[in-house]
């Protein structure tokens, strides 16, 4: 059996980012590893053979998943075939819980035919919702690598073999080569004297279609009153044209692949709930967190969520440091009111920046990709000798 084969599954843009840094560290430990699976351009660039690209996997919410079930089942069958064909012994799943827990269960059912160890890196937020999934995770996974300190305690209390490895965004941001504001101004023909109002509307078309039209209406009004310029940070997997098709407003620029630079140099953000809120928080960008999905998906989700705050920056800090506008509240009027309130009050603005600066202290400075890679590689070697 060839234990040099590793299959990794990441289903969205943030997973691609974290998967790429994990692959880089695994390859440093053993350059002969053969890595395949589901990922994006970043994971491919680090040497992963893509069985499916994440742009085929961008389903959002319960309703949308149901519509795509035949395709999802095909992807799962193909992955199982690849595991068998390649004699894969290590399967690393990154976040993306609906799909990943389902494929994990199917693969586990094939034991003892398959000698496979399942590792979860960046686990579902079961402490927030779906606590019933904890039992599944305990039964299915050899090891769970968590990225928030409180998750290790939560899982260990439930007898899950969990270890806190640090948060990968700490290394991503610490190691990022930030461009100067002057360079951005020249490269994208920005107004050097105007503050940037940044919109981060998500990495999926469905999210963008729900969130962007209301966000841009509010942003236009704010920018007009406060003499700011609007920049939309476009995910690498999206076509920039989508933003111009969703609004009649034209007073904004779309910039791709410079999200961290834009967060660092912006005055304020209108940010879709998700990884972006944590990135913005780590870069101390005052913001409003917005989120909108289908009515049925929201109703189901709301019945399951057991925590007070929705945005990751607020969850980590244990209080609502930045406003959250969810579902019907994520409209142009409320976005405008909340943004204007913060931008018109210097004390409030600085207090938000100060509180966001605490996120780094909470997460610590562990090197998550390096720690995760070492654990995964040691498990591979254990497997080989057992």
What can you tell me about this protein's structure?
The chain is an alpha/beta fold and 386 residues long. The protein has two domains: 5-166 and 366-385, Rossmann fold; 175-363, Glycogen Phosphorylase B (Rossmann fold, 3-Layer(aba) Sandwich). The chain has 19 helices and 13 strands. It has helices at 13-29, 41-45, 61-67, 69-86, 97-108, 133-140, 149-157, 168-174, 181-188, 205-226, 241-245, 259-265, 275-282, 295-304, 312-317, 332-343, 346-356, 358-363, 368-385, and strands at residues 5-10, 34-39, 49-53, 90-94, 117-121, 143-146, 162-164, 196-200, 229-234, 252-256, 268-272, 287-291, 324-326. The strands form two sheets. Strands 3-2-1-4-5-6-7 form a seven-stranded parallel sheet, sandwiched between helices. Strands 10-9-8-11-12-13 form a six-stranded parallel sheet, with helices on both faces. The termini are close together. The model has no long low-confidence stretch (mean pLDDT 90).
């Amino acid at each position: 059996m060839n234990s040099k084969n590793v299959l990794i599954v990441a289903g969205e843009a943030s997973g691609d980012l974290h998967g790429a840094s994990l692959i880089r560290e695994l390859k440093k430990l053993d350059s002969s590893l053969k890595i395949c699976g589901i990922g994006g351009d970043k994971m491919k660039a680090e040497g992963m053979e893509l069985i499916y690209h994440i742009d085929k996997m961008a389903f959002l919410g319960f309703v949308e998943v149901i519509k795509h079930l035949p395709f999802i089942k095909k992807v799962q069958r193909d992955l199982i075939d690849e595991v068998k064909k390649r004699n894969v012994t290590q399967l690393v799943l990154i976040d993306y819980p609906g799909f990943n827990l389902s494929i994990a269960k199917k693969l586990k059912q094939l034991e003892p035919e398959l000698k496979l160890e399942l590792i979860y890196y960046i686990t579902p937020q079961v402490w927030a919702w779906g606590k019933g999934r904890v039992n599944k995770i305990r039964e299915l996974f050899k090891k769970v690598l968590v990225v928030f300190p409180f998750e290790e305690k939560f899982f260990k209390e439930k007898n899950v073999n969990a270890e806190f490895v640090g948060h990968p965004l700490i290394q991503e941001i610490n190691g990022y080569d930030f461009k100067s504001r002057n360079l951005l101004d020249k490269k994208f023909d920005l107004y050097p004297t105007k503050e940037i109002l940044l919109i981060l509307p998500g990495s999926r078309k469905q999210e963008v279609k729900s969130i962007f039209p209301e966000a841009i209406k509010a942003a236009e009004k704010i920018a007009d009153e406060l003499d700011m310029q609007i920049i939309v940070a476009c995910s690498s997997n999206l076509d920039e044209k989508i933003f111009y098709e969703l609004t009649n407003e034209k007073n904004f620029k779309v910039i791709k692949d410079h999200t961290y630079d834009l967060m660092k140099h912006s005055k304020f953000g209108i940010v879709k709930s998700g990884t972006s809120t944590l990135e913005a928080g780590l870069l101390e960008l005052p913001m409003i967190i917005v989120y909108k999905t289908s009515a049925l998906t929201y109703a189901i989700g709301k019945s399951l969520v057991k925590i007070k705050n929705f945005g990751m920056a607020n969850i980590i800090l244990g209080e609502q440091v930045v406003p959250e506008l969810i579902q019907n509240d994520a409209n142009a009027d409320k976005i405008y009111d909340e943004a204007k309130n913060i931008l018109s009050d210097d004390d409030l603005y600085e207090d938000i920046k100060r509180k966001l600066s605490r996120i780094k202290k909470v997460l610590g400075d562990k090197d998550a990709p390096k720690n995760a890679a070492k654990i995964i590689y040691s498990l591979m070697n254990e497997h080989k000798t057992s």
